Amino acid sequence: MDELNQKWELDSIIKGSSFSTFLDDLQQAIRSFKNELEARTAPYTVQDAEAFTTVINNYETLCKQFNEGSAYAECLTAQNIKDADAALANNRMQRLGAELGASGSLLENLLRQTSDSNFNGLVENKSLKERQFALREKRELSRKKLGYDQEQLISSLAVDGYHGWENLYYSLIGKIEIKLNLDGKEKTMSVSQANNLLDDPDRSVRQTAFNALESAWSEHADLFAAALNHIAGFRIAVYRARGWDSVLDEPLDYNRMQAQTLTTMWSAVDRYKPKLAQFMQRKAELFKLKKLSWFDLNAPLNKSNETLTYEDAADFIIKHFGSFNPNMASFAKKAMENRWVEAENRANKRPGGFCTNFPIAKQSRIFMTFSGTASNRLTLAHELGHAYHQSLMNGLPYLSQNYAMNVAETASTFSEMIISDAERATAKTKEERIAFLSDKLERCVALLMNIHARFLFETRFYDERKQGTVSVDRLNQLMSDAEREAYHDTLEVYHPSFWASKLHFYITNWPFYNFPYTFGFLFSTGIYVRALQEGPSFVEKYDALLRDTGRMTTEQLAERHLGVDLMRPDFWISALDYLVRDVDEFLELTK
């Protein structure tokens, strides 16, 4: 592939100079819609079918406009965390989100007041049939909440009393400079640049970067702890007011899954951790270590300092996507050639990676920092999987495109697996094959152990937060204990301040931003196993499954497209059986 521009293009979505006008128009539209709903004094009946359909259409349009603006603001803040104007725009989007949320609460209240017979008649109307699942879900969830006035108050207070703490976290991250000594030279890096060094082949570089990062988190730990405590405190107060007993009620509802499914999944994972521990012990032996440390988890086994070009990574992904589905390959090519990807390695970018979608433009944008590693290539494949997933849903009504986080990781992780297996298959030597196997198993460790540590930490943190503020020392202890348990005590050095470093703990829109990753990984692995068994004929089924992710529960999706019951262990075991085969091969090759 010819040289690619690694900076994304945003002007075709919204020109920067016109964003303020876009927000003004959106604000006016939201307020007009709210006034329209407030003027409605009686529940809907089947005789109001036309008016009801118009209201739903208008709400759907507003949601599309809001998410277009929200995605744009997210891109602005991510590409330069020191952009004050972008931060202001993002804050305004949050205020507009609160206003739209208030309108949504009004609509939910009207849905709740509508009798069962009238509601069924309205949503079974031909014009709304495709949005029936979303509307039924809204009605059911509204019955679990407080009345409109109270929910509106919560939404309004959340702007500064809840989401404001997430904004503070991003501001703190933006101000942190990581200072470290490499090759006798003092260097100053952003958090994302320093994080990339944790994959460096040189252990001294990894350890230096880890210690510098750990020092930065510790230095600001009191501020991070304040933000985390206040986010959790706000949630707990709201849950208590709504009568929700468990902090998992909201994330389970959001992910459209049953508690039994989650319990079954974690139980299956626990059964296979001793096998992953064997891999980690062997890797430690190869490094001539008694045990791995946190900064060794992603250490490459090959000592080559060779780096990938962005174009090499793009060519590899396109080629091997095409081996499964030519449509995926052409989509990935289009995304990279049309500058849908922000990959440039520079200072002041937000850490991590993401894919965000623009429902009006029917495009996606991918954010990452590409430094030339094989891990970067997998991140790019992962985010392109997200974008491909969305492309399959663009023709559906917008309310039917709202897929949950757990199934949102299906296409992304599936895409990673395609590239990971291709890396291993194209290995020219035994050493390369070992290295690629190690890389693949490291991701298993991350998704089955690291994510479990986050889940254990967050569950226990919330239990203690109900009794009062949790101190920095206690947060460190909870994190260390969760890591030891999740990793089966296989590490020498843990990461006690991980709770401060991981932005997922501070995201206010989605509580428990952890278990959906493990779910998505294992769900997509089970689907991948099915794809290997059925061959090219599975492509159509795969696309159909992705299209349905926004219009049925997780259990219904698995039953309809895979014929499996997620509340039983069988499906999870089939996925885990496939994954741990790599451990056996790795152990055999490294005897």
Keywords:
globular, mainly alpha, 591 residues, two-stranded antiparallel sheet, 23 helices, 3-stranded mixed sheet, Butyryl-CoA Dehydrogenase, subunit A, domain 3
Give the assembly state of these chains.
single chain
Strand order of the largest sheet: 3-5-4
Proportion of helical residues: 55-70%
What is the element string, with H for helices and E for strands?
Answer: HHHHHHHEEHHHHHHHEEEHHHHHHHHH
- Helical stretch tally: 23
Structural class: mainly alpha
- Strand coverage percent: under 5%
Estimated radius of gyration:
24 Å
Low-confidence stretches: none
CATH superfamily of the domain at 16-161: Oligopeptidase f, N-terminal domain
In the CATH hierarchy, what is the class of the domain at 16-161? Mainly Alpha
Instruction: Tell me the number of strands.
Output: 5
Query: Based on CA inertia axes, which overall geometry fits?
Result: globular
Distance from first to last alpha carbon: 39 Å
- Quick one: biggest sheet? 3 strands, mixed
Q: Architecture of the domain at 16-161, according to CATH?
A: Up-down Bundle
Protein name: M3 family oligoendopeptidase
GO molecular function, one term: hydrolase activity
Family: Belongs to the peptidase M3 family.
Cofactor: Zn(2+)
